[in-house]
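Just curious: can you write a single protein's sequence together with how it folds?
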Amino acid sequence: MAEICTIYTSLYSFMGIDLIITGAFLMATLTFGLSHGKGIKTFKDYALGGPMSTFVLTCSLVATLSQAQTLNGIRGIHRFGFPQFFFYITILFITYFGARVFIARMGEFLGDFSIAESMGRLYGPIARSITALAVLALMMCFVVTQLKVTLEVVHFSLPDMSSSAAYWVALVVGVVVII
């Protein structure tokens, strides 16, 4: 029984160090963001960090997605052999030919950096507002999910903490991340 208490005490102190490091990182991120975010006036400045062409954004997105697909595909090929290789090649061809179809129709969206902006230009301000609210609701769902995971981590890391204090910790972490 004494061994279990010793293990629990050392694990508890180790988690305390993790929480201190995580808290320091969040505070440093908040300080850096608030000090460097004063010159941001538009959504394009916020999202891109300055002027950037649509071509550069597209290349960045394609590189990110293809890297993730390549890593997952190679792991699957080693695990499942030829059927996975055939599936991976099929996905690459579908992606390539699908992009060829979509690229021909993307000219009217050049210069737009959000779906709401494109919808507003095509269908008017009401469609822009509806699209922006729908995207906002979706992002709020993602944030709530992350806050729920944060709450579970706090409950796991500090089992002796009261549930109301744990909720406040999760809420403060969420506010810091959102800001």
